[in-house]
């Protein structure tokens, strides 16, 4: 499944709505922590593509079928910019610059690769890991790019 994204900030909301509409057929309920995390990741990656490239992008979503209770969900955003994604270190007053830190903290895996004249940024969520975390919440801290955030 894929969605063409125009270089317009309004596309971020459209991408979230599109991703939510795709969840039902996959057996992922809208109120599951996995769904909420997925929508946040869609928002972050599409925002990065729209704001930092100013070029069209493609959002791809690979969802497991309803029978695949322990499958991996994969989200990809391909854009036409060859600029590598760069995590930033921002202070507490900044209104942006935390997107990749959120992706790193929320996704089980993420990365990027050059593709022709552009790049593909991807992240994955393990459905079974999300279910375990929902059943037994944990607390901890993690450092990323000079930032420390708390995982609750």
Architecture blueprint of SSEs:
Elements: E1 2-5, H1 11-23, H2 33-53, E2 57-62, E3 72-79, H3 99-106, E4 109-115, E5 118-126, H4 127-135, E6 140-144, E7 147-151
Antiparallel strand pairs: 1-2, 2-3, 3-5, 4-5, 6-7
Helix pairs in contact: 1-2, 2-3
Q: What would a concise description of this structure say?
A:
By secondary structure, the protein is an alpha+beta fold. Helix content is 34%, strand content 29%.
Structure notes:
With 152 residues, this protein is α+β, with helices and mostly antiparallel strands. The protein has one domain (2-151): 2-Layer Sandwich (Heat Shock Protein 90), CATH 3.30.565. 34% of the residues lie in helices and 29% in strands. It has helices spanning 11-23, 33-53, 99-106, 127-135, and strands spanning 2-5, 57-62, 72-79, 109-115, 118-126, 140-144, 147-151. The chain starts with a strand and ends with a strand.
